[in-house]
Amino acid sequence: MTMHSVRKTAVLAALALTAAAGNAAAQYNSSPSWTGPYLGASVGLGTAKTIWSSADFESKGRGAVGGLQAGYNWQTGSIIVGAEGDYLFSGLKGSGDCLGATATCSSNTRGLGSLRGRLGWAIAPPAMLYFTGGLAWGNTQWSATPTGGGPAASFSHTSAGYALGGGAEFMLSDKWTLKAEYLHYNLGTVQAGAGQFLTTAADLKPRADTFKLGINFKF
Fold first, then answer.
1. Which of 14, 78, 117, 161 is the most exposed, fewest CB within 10 Å of its CB?
2. Which pTM was predicted?
């Protein structure tokens, strides 16, 4: 499947999800509590980049993301406090000339996970706005291919850092909610020693941003 097809599928899925939410919300007028556990799924789009210190270069990519989330909310008055864990499968690939145009450097962010706290405010109609942040991790593969030919060097690592963002969530019924969320991931610095990947030591700094739509079922 081409990247264009992946993006088209993600956009169509998001449009279908939004249409379904609109139909459900039009029939829903009550305001039950947000308190309780939930499980859901999300789809969206993302961008990722790696800052290559030794190559003085940034590899940037974009593509579709999708995965699962689970969490718990506690509501007191108009304040909602919660915790959520999620994992996104992704194919955020980017590449470009580096090392004085003697090689092509590329990066592929294959998955993103997080465990975050959430702080929200209930508003009317039944909805909430929230901020979120916490621990994040991601699996990235990097490679460098000589432009004149020859074998590519590759290196992969799961690095940890933090994720920050926010969003809005809407009650469709006493069991179903729809959310739109933005997250920025800072996955720290990965140190690759000389000869482990490139001929010289490299500091690789992976970053990512995602925007997604999700639907949750509250138990």
1. 78
2. 0.83
